[in-house]
């Protein structure tokens, strides 16, 4: 197959051949050896680039797999299929956080108080919020924590249906007052209050053997 060269390419090749021919035989030999070494180095460089690209791809796959496992174990963006595997029998009482995949997963569903209390505690200790906004977070956390203590005491008492209904009504009213929005609430506090308001009924139910509150906050 013939190779077509333009005038400049032919000129450059002739100059190169002419200069190369003027060199001493030993020098020409060294030049050829250097050219071979340069060619080998270029081939090795191409191979290394391909290996680096392959390693980057493997690292990215590993990162995604680790992220997927963390999501499944620690509860961030948990896939519904994973939640399905955890639920057991449909008639069991499910106690969880307010993640959407759990919404219709259980026939009897309670929401754990530990999650919102922990979020509020973290916000009240935030170093990025101004004093006023951090104070609103602290107020909400303290109010919900005190209500949590009242609820624990109520549940621990001997069961009396009428008394339970009266107590629940009073505590439920306090709950709604605590989560009442304030125009100065930081964005994260607004989201927590909105979620609490949306799911308020599920924080005030209890089934045999399933305590609706946490002792840790």
Automatic annotation (TrEMBL):
**In what residue span(s) does the Transposase IS66 central domain sit?**
81-198
Keywords for this protein: Coiled coil
Give coiled-coil spans as residue ranges.
24-72
InterPro entries xrefs: Transposase_IS66_central (IPR004291)
What protein name is recorded for this chain? Transposase IS66 central domain-containing protein
- The species this protein belongs to is bacterium (Candidatus Gribaldobacteria) CG23_combo_of_CG06-09_8_20_14_all_37_87_8
């Amino acid at each position: 197959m013939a190779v077509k060269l333009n005038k400049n390419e032919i000129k450059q090749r002739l100059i190169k051949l002419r200069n190369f021919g003027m060199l001493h035989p030993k020098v020409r030999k060294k030049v050829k050896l250097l050219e071979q070494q340069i060619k080998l180095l270029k081939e090795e460089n191409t191979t290394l680039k391909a290996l680096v690209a392959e390693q980057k791809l493997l690292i990215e796959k590993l990162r995604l797999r680790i992220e997927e496992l963390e999501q499944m174990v620690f509860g961030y963006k948990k896939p519904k299929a994973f939640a399905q595997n955890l639920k057991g029998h449909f008639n069991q009482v499910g106690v969880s956080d307010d993640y959407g995949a759990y919404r219709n997963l259980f026939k009897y569903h309670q929401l754990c108080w530990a999650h919102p209390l922990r979020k509020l505690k973290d916000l009240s200790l935030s170093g990025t919020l101004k004093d006023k906004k951090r104070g609103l977070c602290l107020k909400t956390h303290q109010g919900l924590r005190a209500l949590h203590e009242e609820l624990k005491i109520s549940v621990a008492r001997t069961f009396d249906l009428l008394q339970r209904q009266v107590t629940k009504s009073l505590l439920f009213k306090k709950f709604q007052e605590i989560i009442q929005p304030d125009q100065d609430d930081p964005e994260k506090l607004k989201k927590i209050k909105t979620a609490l308001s949306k799911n308020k009924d599920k924080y005030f139910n209890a089934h045999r053997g399933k305590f609706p509150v946490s002792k840790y906050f």
